[in-house]
Structures are given as structure tokens and as C-alpha cells.
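Input C-alpha cells:
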């Protein structure tokens, strides 16, 4: 599968880059502001690629959401976005500062291209505004974001959607079908101390980095929630794109709440059978694929094995 990974590294994004490079033909990485600012997310993507020896171009994308103030994820991801990992001096540089043009041009020039977005959807929305036909040129569009009736940054909103709800609304409406790998499924694939030890035993710069970022994430979950395991959302989303047979999904209209005082950024999945029937009757009505469940052990193993190849 030829893949562009749009990301905001970010602890779990760092692991996701490795998993994507292992199981897909990762032809490009684009960055977006999200967990931390765009300078950091771009730098972090370059660092991950450098430490893992990946030959992949990295294009800098949007610095702010379409509307409203940026949501900061550094409480979870640390000031740098990569926890307390010790990072080498950067020897790489970004391929361009126009991720949106890169996505649009590549979608038209590369057959069977899949776009996987694991950060706020700002770049994808801007790409759709620039090229309203973008979706027709993609073989698939998968996101890590949202959830049906479940949130993390608020009771009902997930971070990536809440960080740019206007962009997410554009994407769900204008780029159907979107495969939503949301908290319903990503919360179920969790990692603990023994997994971190196994990754660290890989003994390479990349496995050292991966162990460090998962450990930092787990420490936050221990500190804030008292949990002894942690989801690595973005890595699970990569496997949903590369190993779709391991995931259960169903089709539903999904819309993004933009105005609710308590619900801004909620992905409202209409699970009523009649709603799907109505949407399917109107060729232009967007219908998404909501991913619910997976073979948790198989996906955990895929992620660990992927990381250990670097
Ligand atoms: C998502 O939010 C970010 O903090 C993570 O990188 C992931 O993409 C999980 O809600
Ligand atoms: Ca992310």
C-alpha cells in the first residue's frame, strides 16, 4: 500500500511512523500542528526518520487550525512532543513547507495512494479546499480521531477532532468515505511495562526512542489515571489501514459538532439503521466507516514486531 502519513509527533505518532514504514510503502510524511506546535512536530518527524534510517520526504504543513485557538497537547506529550527522549542533532531537513500542495500533487500523480491522518485534520481540509476532487484520487482515507459517543480531551470529543473541528467537519462531509479509527477501538489496544522492556531490548536508536516515548505516555497515564497500561492510538490506526481484515467496521453517517458548549468536536455517529438507509438513497450524502473492534493481541504483536525491525 502506498501511503502518505499526515501526523503531529507526538509520542504515539512517533511509533506510528515506524509502523507505517514497516507495513506500507511510506512515500511521504506531512506534518501538522497538534500535540505541539508545527516547528516541533516537523522537527520530531525528521528526528524519527533520521533515527530509524527512513528515506522518506517530510513536508511541513499547517501551523494553526482553520478556526479558533490551538489546543495544546504538551501535558501528555511533553514540551518537545517526544516526552523526555534524548534526541540527536538533526542532520535532515524538510522536503518542503507546503504539505497541502504535496498531498494534492501526489494524489494526482500516484495510483492507489492511501492517506492516513493521525493528527488534527487541518492539512486534509486545506487539501480538499484546494482540490475538491482530491478524494477521487485517493484509494483510501483513514483517520485516527473521534469516536462514537466517547471522548478523551472532553467527555465527548477526541483530541484530533477537538483540535480542529472545522477541518474535521469538512473532511467528513467532503471526503467520504472516511474510515474513522476512533477511541472505540484504539483505547482497547494497550501496552504496559513488559512491552516497553521488550522494545528497549531491541537495542537500536529507534527502539530506544520508541521505548522512551511509550514509557513517557504510560507514566502520564499512571500519574493522571492510575492505569498500568496505555493505548498508542496512532500506531493502531496505522494497522487498521495496513491490515484491515483485523478490524470490524460498520457504515454510518458521521457529523462533527461545531457549536455545542459541551460538545464541540464531538463526532456524532448516527447509528440508526434508517439514517444509513436515508443517506444511501442520496448519492451525495456522506457515509463513513466507523471502526469498532479488532483482534487486540494480533494488533499489539504487529506493532511490537514493526518497531523491533528498526
Ligand atoms: C490522538 O491525540 C493525540 O494526542 C495523539 O497523538 C493521537 O493522535 C488521540 O486522541
Ligand atoms: Ca497524533
Amino acid at each position: 500500500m502506498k501511503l502518505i502519513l499526515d501526523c503531529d509527533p507526538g509520542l504515539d505518532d512517533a511509533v506510528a511512523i515506524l509502523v507505517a514504514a514497516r507495513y506500507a510503502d511510506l512515500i511521504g510524511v506531512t506534518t501538522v500542528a497538534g500535540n505541539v506546535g508545527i516547528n516541533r512536530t516537523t522537527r520530531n518527524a525528521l528526528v524519527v526518520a533520521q533515527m530509524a534510517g527512513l528515506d522518506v520526504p517530510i513536508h511541513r504543513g499547517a501551523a494553526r487550525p482553520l478556526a479558533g485557538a490551538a489546543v495544546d497537547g504538551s501535558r501528555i506529550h511533553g514540551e518537545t512532543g517526544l516526552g523526555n527522549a534524548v534526541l540527536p542533532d538533526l542532520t535532515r531537513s524538510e522536503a518542503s513547507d507546503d504539505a497541502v500542495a504535496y498531498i494534492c500533487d501526489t494524489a494526482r500523480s500516484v495510483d492507489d495512494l492511501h492517506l492516513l491522518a493521525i493528527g488534527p485534520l487541518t492539512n486534509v481540509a486545506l487539501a480538499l479546499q484546494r482540490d475538491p476532487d482530491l478524494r477521487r484520487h485517493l484509494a483510501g482515507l483513514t483517520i485516527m480521531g473521534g469516536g462514537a459517543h466517547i471522548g478523551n480531551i472532553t467527555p465527548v470529543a477526541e483530541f484530533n477532532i477537538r483540535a480542529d473541528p472545522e477541518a474535521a467537519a469538512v473532511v467528513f462531509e467532503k471526503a467520504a468515505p472516511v474510515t474513522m479509527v476512533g477511541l472505540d477501538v484504539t483505547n482497547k489496544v494497550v501496552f504496559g511495562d513488559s512491552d516497553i522492556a521488550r522494545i528497549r531490548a531491541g537495542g537500536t536508536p529507534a527502539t530506544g526512542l520508541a521505548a522512551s516515548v511509550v514509557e513517557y505516555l504510560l507514566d502520564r497515564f499512571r500519574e493522571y489515571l492510575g492505569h498500568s497500561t496505555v493505548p498508542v492510538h496512532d500506531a493502531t490506526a496505522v494497522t487498521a489501514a495496513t491490515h484491515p481484515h483485523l478490524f470490524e467496521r460498520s457504515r454510518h453517517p458521521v457529523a462533527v459538532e461545531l457549536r455545542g458548549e459541551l460538545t464541540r468536536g464531538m463526532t456524532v455517529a448516527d447509528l440508526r439503521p434508517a439514517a444509513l438507509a436515508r443517506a444511501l438513497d442520496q448519492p451525495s450524502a456522506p457515509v463513513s466507516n466507523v471502526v469498532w473492534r479488532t483482534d487486540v493481541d494480533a494488533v499489539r504483536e504487529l506493532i511490537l514486531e514493526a518497531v523491533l525491525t528498526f
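The mean pLDDT is 97. The longest strand covers residues 25-31.
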